[in-house]
């Protein structure tokens, strides 16, 4: 690429990314705004029930289940959080229909929130943002490489709007969703996040998403408590991940009918809203209430267990909705349980309740998502303070190490692999996919000759870029750290290529992917 062409590409991507930030920001902010009203309406609905109201709510739940089921059939990739679907889009394994995704996420998300399901807005905001990025790329008639960059930018913009955390949103999308931190996508994702965050602050104000004020940092003499909190959040995170996946397996085995699964989910939400309303919704407001009016240890333990189980049930029903915010709520509740537990033992931890709430959120997010740096930055940005970053980092590190010992996989990777198993059989087509991978500096791939790579027979390395110089890949070419490989294969084999690189390269992930029909 000539310098003039490269400069034009850079300026074009910068402007496109800002535009995507505006579009995706408006879409995600609108989603967040409507879900806020839906949450309030849900509270009013369940607090004003008489005999006729109960019949009306049952009718509403059944109608909502039917609408949501029709949306899932109409837009198959719109269920759940949306993050595994975006990962599939980057891997070239799925091709989301952007317009349908946005409509289904909006309507399905509103209905699930009105019903009182314990789901969040963050995962759906990422998918809405990525879909709007894809739509913007299509409108601007950009090529497939630029489309992937704008999808990344849209995903980051969506999360930034949901949390008011543009830096963490950029890092999360690149580290966890895109599985690659490359300079070519870093700037577009950051620009879109900042633009989207600006729109969010115009609508919702300058306060952080989780506005918990803690004036003083925790003294280093009390850092021993942080190790215990890290272990507690690791246990809760492990239980959450295992229960979520186990219920999903049971649902698919015993309730394979999607309509029945969605209907049962809405009916369970109705029963929970009537008998245990505190468990409904994302739980953010309840955390704030408990901070102002602390509860006893027994109530908090029961509330934590109930919230964990109910969130898993809601998510595994398959309706549009995420687990990001409910997981943070579980972390906050874990911090409260830990605080009350230490207090019951006679330990003087009275000044640290809010500290434990904040640190607990970082710990459980690290345990579930397995991205400690993103978790540390996200919680710091969300709470509006960087003064506790060392304490947060200690809890996150302990939680990460503990879940590493038990070999707990990142939840979104597990959900993605299960979704890939479902779609693998339908990808038997002559369509080709082009994937790009960056070879980590420390991996078994470094020093390996291309001819020794155990790639599928239909996979071909068509380009190798080293230090910004394009080389012709030959059988005896040895791979070096940070080499960028472009691989073309049948769409049905893309998953095998992805698994091979992730197995040998550990943290290897697709930098970009594109499709082209070579029939």
Automatic annotation (TrEMBL):
Occurrences of domain RCK C-terminal (ranges): 421-503
GO biological process: potassium ion transport
CDD domains linked to this entry: EriC
Top-level taxonomic group: Bacteria
GO molecular function: chloride channel activity; monoatomic cation transmembrane transporter activity
Recorded topology in the membrane: Multi-pass membrane protein
A cellular-component GO term for this protein: chloride channel complex
InterPro entries noted in UniProt: Cl-channel_core, ClC, ClC-type_chloride_channel, RCK_C, RCK_C_sf
First-listed, main subcellular location of the protein, grouped into a coarse class: membrane
Ranges that cross the membrane: 12-31, 51-69, 149-173, 224-246, 258-277, 297-315, 322-340, 352-373, 385-402
One protein family per Pfam: TrkA_C
Localization (cell): Membrane
Keywords, in A-Z order: Chloride, Chloride channel, Ion channel, Ion transport, Membrane, Transmembrane, Transmembrane helix, Transport
PROSITE patterns according to UniProt: RCK_C
Keyword Transmembrane: yes
SUPFAM superfamilies, per database record: Clc chloride channel, TrkA C-terminal domain-like
This protein's record includes keyword Amino-acid biosynthesis: no
PANTHER family: CHLORIDE CHANNEL PROTEIN CLC-E
Protein name: Chloride transporter, ClC family
Species assigned in the record: Eremococcus coleocola ACS-139-V-Col8
Source organism phylogeny: Bacteria, Bacillati, Bacillota, Bacilli, Lactobacillales
């Amino acid at each position: 690429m000539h310098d003039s062409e490269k400069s034009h590409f850079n300026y074009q991507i910068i402007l496109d990314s800002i535009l995507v930030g505006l579009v995706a920001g408006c879409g995600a902010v609108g989603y967040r705004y409507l879900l806020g009203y839906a949450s309030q309406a849900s509270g009013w609905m369940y607090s004003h029930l008489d005999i006729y109201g109960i019949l009306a709510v049952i009718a509403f739940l059944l109608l909502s289940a039917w609408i949501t089921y029709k949306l899932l059939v109409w837009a198959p990739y719109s269920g759940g959080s949306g993050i595994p679907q975006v990962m599939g889009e980057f891997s070239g394994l799925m091709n989301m229909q952007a317009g349908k995704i946005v409509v289904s996420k909006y309507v399905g998300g509103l209905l699930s929130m009105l019903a009182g399901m314990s789901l969040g807005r963050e995962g759906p905001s990422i998918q809405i943002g990525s879909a709007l990025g894809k739509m913007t790329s299509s409108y601007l008639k950009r090529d497939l490489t630029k489309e992937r960059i704008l999808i990344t930018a849209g995903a980051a913009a969506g999360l930034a709007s949901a949390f008011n955390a543009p830096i963490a949103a950029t890092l999360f999308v690149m580290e966890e969703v895109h599985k690659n931190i490359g300079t070519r996508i870093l700037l577009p994702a950051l620009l879109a996040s900042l633009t989207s965050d600006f729109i969010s602050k115009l609508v919702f104000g300058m306060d952080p998403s989780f506005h918990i004020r803690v004036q003083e940092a925790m003294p280093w003499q009390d850092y021993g408590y942080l190790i215990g909190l890290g272990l507690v959040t690791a246990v809760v995170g492990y239980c959450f991940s295992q229960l979520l996946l186990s219920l999903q397996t049971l649902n698919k085995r015993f309730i394979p009918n999607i309509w029945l699964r969605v209907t049962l989910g809405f009916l369970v939400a109705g029963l929970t809203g009537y008998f245990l309303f505190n468990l409904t919704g994302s739980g953010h407001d309840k955390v704030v209430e408990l901070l102002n009016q602390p509860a006893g240890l027994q109530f908090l333990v029961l509330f934590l267990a109930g919230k964990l189980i109910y969130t898993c049930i809601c998510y595994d029903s398959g309706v549009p909705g995420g687990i990001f915010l409910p997981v943070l709520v579980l972390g906050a509740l874990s911090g409260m349980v830990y605080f009350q537990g230490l207090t019951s033992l006679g330990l003087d931890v009275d000044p640290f309740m809010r500290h434990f709430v904040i640190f607990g959120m970082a710990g459980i997010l690290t345990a579930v998502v397995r991205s400690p740096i993103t978790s540390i930055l996200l919680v710091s940005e969300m709470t509006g303070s960087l003064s506790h970053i060392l304490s947060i980092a200690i809890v996150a590190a302990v939680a990460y190490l503990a879940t590493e010992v038990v070999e707990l996989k990142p939840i979104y990777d597990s959900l993605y692999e299960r979704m890939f198993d479902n779609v693998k059989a339908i990808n038997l087509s002559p369509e080709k996919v082009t994937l790009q991978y960056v070879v980590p500096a420390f991996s078994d791939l470094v020093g390996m000759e291309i001819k020794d790579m155990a790639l599928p027979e239909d996979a071909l390395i068509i380009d190798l870029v080293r230090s910004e110089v394009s080389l012709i890949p030959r059988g005896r070419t040895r791979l070096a750290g940070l080499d960028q490989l472009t691989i073309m294969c049948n769409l049905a084999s893309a998953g095998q290529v992805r698994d091979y690189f992730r197995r040998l390269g550990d943290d290897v992930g697709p930098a970009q992917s594109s499709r082209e029909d070579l029939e």
